[in-house]
Design goal:
Shape: globular
Strand order of the largest sheet: 1-4-3-2-11-5-8-9-10
Number of strands: 11
Helix content: under 10%
Order of helices and strands: EEEEEEEEEEEH
Distance between the termini: 64 Å
Number of domains: 1
Number of helices: 1
Strand content: 35-45%
Amino acid sequence: MCDYSLHAVQSRPAVVGETLVTTTFRGTSTRGFASESDRAVAVCMLPGTELAFAENVRYDSRWIWTKTVGYRVGVFNEVQPDVPDRHHDAVEFPDGSHVLVTQLCEGQKVTVLQLPVQGQPAEQKPKAVETRPSAFASLFLS
């Protein structure tokens, strides 16, 4: 998922194992994830994507100061998806706190550890198990 403000930016899905960088996209005031080799293309993630940052996560607070979260791992998620016209993309940390992706300081490296499982097949009924004894078992039963 990419935030609503990045709909005019070229994008692609994240790939497991790739290293991304936080960046501000040209022509927007929105930050997000991009490949180090192509910072013009937004890398979009599905909620549940697991991330590992190279260092403790830094973000811009509403004030002038930059803050640091004491974590290097997080899960990409959405916050308040029912509220229109605002940023929803966020990284959630082990303590349950989160930071909006657009608040992440630029230049932070992050590795995609795991993508969420999607499209689980419907549960199938187990096949009936044959209950007659096998040829080997019949030697002992007779």
